[in-house]
Specification:
Blueprint (H helix, E strand, L loop, with lengths): L1 E5 L5 H8 L3 E6 L11 E3 L12 E4 L14 H7 L1 H17 L6 E3 L1
Parallel strand pairs: 1-2, 1-4, 2-3, 4-5
Length: 107
């Protein structure tokens, strides 16, 4: 199975899928930290969505959205960081929704 693991610099999921025989690639705007740069696409995931994938799993950043950080929500709203992440997440979600794949997950 040809899999794109978006927003994953750690390559944890990519490595596990590779162990199971899948052709998996991590993608993130950050360099990978998982030790396999040959399996990492360091770029914005949006440009890769139109390529042939059997499965897409995405882990968009939650730093400014997670309830565990609710104490800082007023500050994040005030400085715009929360809205920026929401806009990016909505854009990514809409782009993924228009792809006709049966195996799509946003974590």
């Amino acid at each position: 199975m040809n899999a794109l693991i978006a927003c994953e610099e750690s390559q944890a999921v990519t490595i596990e899928l590779r162990k199971r025989g899948h052709e998996a690639y991590s993608c993130d705007i950050e360099p990978c930290s998982g030790g396999h740069p040959e399996w990492h696409l360091q770029q914005d995931v949006i440009s890769l969505l139109n390529e042939k994938w059997d499965m897409i799993i995405a882990f968009p950043p939650c730093t400014d959205l997670a309830v565990s950080g609710a104490r800082w929500f007023p500050e994040k709203k005030a400085n715009g960081s929360q809205q920026k992440v929401l806009n990016s997440l909505c854009n990514l979600s809409m782009q993924i929704v228009i792809i006709s794949l049966s195996k799509i997950r946003l974590e």
